[in-house]
């Protein structure tokens, strides 16, 4: 027998079992007793059985492919998200097809067209900074394509959402800076039409309000492409440091904004934390290797990808059943390091 092409029929014949019994055992069905299931799985492992995904897709009218739309792939946060997604997808026998929009709505629309032409079973999407609504996604949803939003979301479709505690994270990070004695905290963030931006601004404002302090609105800067273009971050920082009263702290809303801000401060000769402190939402590897080590608000990117994939595959495999849209908000964790530890006089 060629072990590379062993089938369910081969296993059934070898073990003197019916085809349906072997099939159910391989799927972990409760209808099959534990001894029989273990016997089938052991034989399958020994003879390197692999399911025929093409045959299954033809039978079930599924491609066993998931479309993944991201703003950009060279991003440490999204890299962890991809790992989380693929850890679930591969265990369930699904292939993940990854596309990136480079923060362009037009590219996002093209990516959706290309993915759906390849008959994907479902879609995971973190929208671009140019995406303001779900109109371009509605036709796919109406045709029954399961969709799950993660990280950057759009309201308007009755579907699952997985995101971080953006408001709580921004509140905690801002409060940390206020507790250190800083009062002019600049917040560099993405466009305000994004739900994530609004949530983080809400957390920032709440921290000031609870401290009984007023906010200087000139300290709030939005980058149209979410920091993907370094020049946007630098222009925001240029504007901040030409104010009559420059900021004494910077809170950046993403990996890219945090790193670009760090590079700008070093290039312009500003010492961290002596001249200004820096903190941000960041998941890049080894922030402690920066000099000084950076204070970061860390999101559980791997868990985000994992949860999103689980929800999507459940919808794919039960798409003819009714469901209630679920919104999962994952906790974030503040890691305080040297970039915000300078003692100042209030």
UniProtKB/TrEMBL annotation:
Pfam name, any one: LacI
SUPFAM superfamilies found in the cross-reference section: lambda repressor-like DNA-binding domains, Periplasmic binding protein-like I
Domain HTH lacI-type: 6-60
Keyword Transmembrane: no
Stored InterPro entries: HTH_LacI, LacI/GalR-like_sensor, Lambda_DNA-bd_dom_sf, Peripla_BP_I
Statement: the UniProt record of this protein carries the keyword Heme: no
Keywords: DNA-binding, Transcription, Transcription regulation
Gene3D superfamilies: 3.40.50.2300, lambda repressor-like DNA-binding domains (1.10.260.40)
The protein's name: LacI family transcriptional regulator
